[in-house]
From TrEMBL:
The keyword Hydrolase applies. Signal peptide: none annotated. Pfam families: Lipase_GDSL (PF00657). Belongs to the 'GDSL' lipolytic enzyme family. IAH1 subfamily. This is Isoamyl acetate-hydrolyzing esterase 1 homolog. CDD domains: Isoamyl_acetate_hydrolase_like.
Length: 240
């Protein structure tokens, strides 16, 4: 049987907190939507860490991204801030001061670039808007105080977008897009994490940027079934 080197699909690397970790879940399904859209074109590499902030993600990034992975990465999303924006006194475990939050994002971008991901391939996603009324019920069930508010989340979202502008990366201002809605709470399933509607919104915001970054990726790897040359099957299938 004829053989050829293994083809490695281009990678869309998703890095972030729980909203990234849950991106294949029933509601928070923006990763599922991307995987479906890019089926047979790109692999999704999901590295989401529930509860993590930029301080911790800045520390672990060198353990999950190296030059070999970067070489195959066509887009790298950084989706953080929902945890950093917790109140310092009520939730010191997750809170990260605004100035440090900005510097941590810059460090993450700088490291990704040092491994070979150009700034044009990096997309910073702002934290989503926050529904305190809904999340307070979750906090009550967990026996924890409500330690977030939407105004502070908005400040961190603005800071995220500012870092993107300063570093020359792409950005998705999810917070502002949600707040332009008549009822932004419909984009959340528990006040903090994305609902199906919120996932659709994020997909719609990301897709134009990803389409640009994947313009050189073949429409499909290997020929469509009706394009296989039955007179020369091996060459038809392996001439990729």
């Amino acid at each position: 049987m004829a053989s050829k080197k293994i083809i490695s699909w281009p990678k869309i690397f998703l890095f972030g907190d729980s909203i990234t970790q849950f991106c294949f879940s029933k509601d928070g399904c923006w990763g599922t939507m991307l995987a479906d859209y890019y089926q047979r074109r790109c692999d999704l590499m999901v590295r989401g860490f529930s509860g993590y902030n930029t301080r911790w993600c800045n520390i672990i990034l060198p353990s999950i991204l190296d030059a070999d992975i970067a070489k195959e990465t066509v887009a790298f999303t950084v989706f953080l801030g929902a945890n950093d924006s917790n109140d310092a006194s009520l939730n010191p475990r997750q809170h990260v001061p605004l100035a440090e939050f900005e510097q941590n994002l810059k460090n993450i971008v700088t490291f990704a670039m040092s491994q070979g991901i150009s700034r044009e391939k990096i997309i910073l996603i702002s934290p989503p808007a926050f529904n305190a009324e809904a999340w307070s019920k979750v906090c009550l069930e967990r026996g924890k105080p409500l330690s977030k508010d939407n105004d502070t989340t908005g400040v961190y979202a603005q800071a995220c977008c500012k870092v993107a502008d300063e570093m020359g990366t792409k950005k998705v201002d999810l917070y502002s897009a949600m707040m332009r809605s008549m009822d932004f709470t419909l984009y959340l399933n528990d006040g903090l994490h994305l609902s199906g509607k919120g996932s659709e919104l994020l997909f719609d915001l990301l897709q134009p940027l990803l389409k640009q970054l994947t313009s050189d990726v073949p429409e499909v790897w290997f020929p469509a079934y009706d394009q296989v040359d039955l007179e020369n099957v091996d060459q038809s299938l392996l001439d990729v």
